[in-house]
Amino acid sequence: MREVEARRDELVALTSELIRIPTLNPPGEAYLEICEYLKRRLEPQGFAIEMIRAVGAPGDSDRYPRWNVIARREGRYPGECVHFNSHTDVVEPGRGWTLDPFGGEVKDGKVYGRGACDMKGGLAASIVAAEAFVALFPDFSGAVEISGTADEETGGFGGVAYLAEKGFFSPSRVQHVIIPEPLNKDRICLGHRGVWWGEIETFGHIAHGSMPFLGDCAVRHMGAVVAEMEQSLFPALAARQTDMPVVPPPARRSTLNINSFHGGLDEPKDGFSGFPSPLVPDSARMVLDRRYLIEESPEGVKGEIVALLERVKAQRPSFDYELKELWGVTPTMTDRDAPVVKTVASAIQAVFDREPEYVASPGTYDQKHIARIGKMYNCIAYGPGILDLAHQPDEYVGIDDMVDSAKVMALSLLQLLMPVELA
């Protein structure tokens, strides 16, 4: 589409400007700043803007308010609404960068920076696609919405989950949702695996470190839990396969990640240069990140952990534990015959002259809330970028990939929102 191609430089500049707004999560910085930026960008072009703070959501506070923005452009005729949803938060840069993670530097056909791939490049592509479509076809039917939402990287509860609870993703308001996550420009992501997060705490008895026989070490108890996981749980998970088209292929198995492990004294505060005190740890905590398949159930996932802990308890007379569920969502998969899937597939065919690949994501993204809370199942992820680059040092998004994806998005709008007699 020539109108999108003509906006290439604008797309690059927009991506760089979004990267330069350091929306780090946690704790949730610059959310209001990026929402106001999007408002200034879209309001002059006829988009009605709503700024929504997720008051009371996890993480929301006066210091770190969870701000979201929804921009809506009404067409001339009645019709359906196509919604592009992008999260604005990014994870911390981490070590290993050779470029400024918030510089938005353009180099060798790529835009670099934290969030370039995941997913400010996708947000920029959706904006340019919508602007190009509206400029060429102002008399379209229905409505176009663009949202920038908070907290996807930490579960999305201050973003899409909150908006879905308020009715912003109800089928009566929105009929098609495209989430520009970085799954490659010729792929359609139909859904994702399930996730269950839990925290195990083991208990012991505090004592002097020189006389550990007078205490009971909670870390050793937790070590026994990890040993049992290694012996029985990890092999069992690795043997399970799904029919979901999850990418990369190793993620077509059930997986468990030990997200964190804490035992004994807290880490020393900044500025303290002394030595730790000699104590037997009376508590140890481990946070689990369990990703499961559509063939499994959340009850089965939790039950498997409980059974493991009970086996350890039977082997260790003084073993005591507490299991706390943190959060979880079930797997989701959009049908390949859904209207948004067929439309985007047709646009990919037109742009690339080949059929799309249909995939599922190894991790969850905000489709989970749109489906389970909003009850809106005509939803996919489609956007530029390579998933493997997300959260990595020197993260980037290819400029050609963004332009091509914007063309697919614009063509999808044309197919969904133009009356037959005007298209």
UniProtKB/TrEMBL annotation:
- Which cofactor names does the annotation list? Zn(2+); Co(2+)
Alphabetized PANTHER family for the sequence? ACETYLORNITHINE DEACETYLASE, ARGE_DAPE-RELATED DEACYLASE
Limits of the Peptidase M20 dimerisation domain: 191-314
A GO term, aspect molecular function? succinyl-diaminopimelate desuccinylase activity
Query: Which Pfam families has this protein been placed in?
Result: M20_dimer, Peptidase_M20
Q: Which family does it belong to?
A: Belongs to the peptidase M20A family.
Gene3D superfamilies the UniProt entry points to: 3.30.70.360, Zn peptidases
Q: What name appears for this protein in its UniProt entry?
A: Succinyl-diaminopimelate desuccinylase
Q: Does the keyword RNA-binding apply?
A: no
Which organism does this record belong to? Rhizobium aquaticum
Catalytic activity, EC: 3.5.1.18
Record bears the keyword rRNA processing: no
Q: Which UniProt keywords apply?
A: Cobalt, Hydrolase, Metal-binding, Zinc
